Amino acid sequence: MRSVEKSRETKETAVRVVFDPDTPGTVDISTGIGFMDHMLNAFARHGGFSLTVEAKGDLEVDCHHTIEDIGIVLGTAVKESVGEGRGIRRFAHAIVPMDESRATAALDISGRGYLVMDGSFTGISTGSIPNDLFEHFFYSFCTNAGITAHVIFSGVNDHHKCEAIFKAFGIALGKALSVRPGETAVPSTKGTL
């Protein structure tokens, strides 16, 4: 079983994540940021994995610390869940349209965290979240998960762009974490991720 529970508490936030890539269906998100709850819910449901996120942060300041720390803790949980990576597919991608918007996410569970995001938002914020924090969330996630991700998005409506991004990323993550039947080797010519 690859289910992992991780927590992080600072003077700014308290975040708890339970991540289970093998058991779809249990999604319970409570961050205090409505739009982030919506995005993480879509991320997990379309990714086909169970995810619990409980976060309390200094939202009276802004949502930066909370969103960043969710990315850190979720990334750490995914990395621990991967372990040596024996049998996983490792590489995956997904393309998701949402009305006029489209997002592509290509992932490599390589042990090396890296993020490339190619696209732009129309406005300053979506929901109550400044749009630059979406890239920061995925950066925090990728660097802590040891995942290289390339995300390309386009469209007009920022809500649709965000939703397509989170869905595409979730689907690609679910595929990359899936175990190939009968495979027990680490998916790397080096023998390690």
UniProtKB/TrEMBL annotation:
<dbReference type="GO" id="GO:0004424">
    <property type="term" value="F:imidazoleglycerol-phosphate dehydratase activity"/>
</dbReference>
<dbReference type="GO" id="GO:0000105">
    <property type="term" value="P:L-histidine biosynthetic process"/>
</dbReference>
<dbReference type="InterPro" id="IPR020568">
    <property type="entry name" value="Ribosomal_Su5_D2-typ_SF"/>
</dbReference>
<dbReference type="GO" id="GO:0005737">
    <property type="term" value="C:cytoplasm"/>
</dbReference>
<dbReference type="Pfam" id="PF00475">
    <property type="entry name" value="IGPD"/>
</dbReference>
<keyword id="KW-0456">Lyase</keyword>
<comment type="pathway">
    <text>Amino-acid biosynthesis; L-histidine biosynthesis; L-histidine from 5-phospho-alpha-D-ribose 1-diphosphate: step 6/9.</text>
</comment>
<protein>
    <recommendedName>
        <fullName>Imidazoleglycerol-phosphate dehydratase</fullName>
        <ecNumber>4.2.1.19</ecNumber>
    </recommendedName>
</protein>
<keyword id="KW-0963">Cytoplasm</keyword>
<comment type="similarity">
    <text>Belongs to the imidazoleglycerol-phosphate dehydratase family.</text>
</comment>
<dbReference type="InterPro" id="IPR020565">
    <property type="entry name" value="ImidazoleglycerP_deHydtase_CS"/>
</dbReference>
<keyword id="KW-0028">Amino-acid biosynthesis</keyword>
<dbReference type="InterPro" id="IPR000807">
    <property type="entry name" value="ImidazoleglycerolP_deHydtase"/>
</dbReference>
<keyword id="KW-0368">Histidine biosynthesis</keyword>
<dbReference type="InterPro" id="IPR038494">
    <property type="entry name" value="IGPD_sf"/>
</dbReference>
